[in-house]
Design goal:
By secondary structure, the chain is mainly alpha-helical. It has one domain. 69% of the residues lie in helices and 0% in strands. It has nine helices and no strands. α2 packs antiparallel against α8. The chain starts with a helix and ends in a 6-residue tail after the last helix.
Length: 238
């Protein structure tokens, strides 16, 4: 994977997380629009690009791994409170407790997303991960500050989260080039896990990114833009 892609993954999450120091309060209208756009884009590239690619190798178990990824994301959210799709939950009785479950599940989530990037040209997946890590990192920063972790600790854990997707790529790439075995045979199944995760995250964002699930013209415009960009970048238009 090219250096600029690794930097994009790291910098997008870093920017999203560190921007928590620039925006105060609970009214993050721009964040909701970014969520709607990223959710639509994630759903678009998953349906138009990732799923067809995963089934290209005629592996009958890909569908099983998509289901596993979808269910695994549900389990992760038991510990992360939905931060993966930008939700920010503040618990006043936990103000001095480090959110271990949130941090571990979020890092594992990002690490798994980075693993399929070792399989050749995955530009759309890189963009999708980078996009949805912006609100996820912002939500993580918000939770850390709310839990009185301090500026230095918050910056450290945001940067730790930011390196997880690149770390997943490097780990997967190291396995595939070692003598452990032909990992290439399992890439479609790893992709299936990520597809399941993306399907859960994107649909959750689209259904929950507006208050009371009411129609919002700006949200609809963001959704249509995300779908349009995913469609423009799909193999169908080339």
């Amino acid at each position: 994977m090219e250096t600029w892609k690794v930097l994009l993954l790291f910098l997008s999450a870093s920017f999203g997380g560190l921007s928590v120091f620039l925006f105060r309060g609970d009214n993050h209208k721009m964040l909701k629009l970014v969520l709607s756009f990223s959710g639509a884009y994630l759903f678009g590239i998953t349906v138009l690009h990732l799923i067809p690619d995963a089934y290209h190798g005629n592996d009958n178990y890909v569908g099983v791994f998509i289901l596993i990824g979808f269910l695994f994301q549900i389990v992760l959210e038991l510990f992360s409170d939905g931060i993966e799709h930008g939700h920010m939950h503040k618990h006043q009785h936990d103000l001095v407790v480090f959110p271990v479950g949130i941090m571990v599940s979020l890092c594992l989530h990002a690490f798994l997303e980075g693993m399929p990037l070792a399989q050749g040209n995955q530009d759309q997946l890189v963009y999708g991960i980078a996009l949805h890590h912006i609100p996820a990192a912002f939500a993580l920063g918000t939770v850390l500050l709310t839990n009185k972790q301090g500026r230095n600790k918050t910056v450290f854990f945001i940067l730790l989260f930011a390196v997880m997707a690149p770390a997943g790529y490097f780990f997967s790439n190291a396995l595939s080039t070692s003598n452990i075995g032909n990992l290439q045979h399992y890439f479609n199944r790893i992709m299936g896990l990520v597809i399941g995760i993306f399907l859960h995250i994107s649909t959750t964002i689209l259904f929950e990114s507006s208050a009371d699930h009411k129609f919002n013209l700006r949200k609809m415009a963001a959704v249509l833009l995300g779908v349009a960009i995913a469609l423009a970048a799909s193999p169908l238009t080339h």
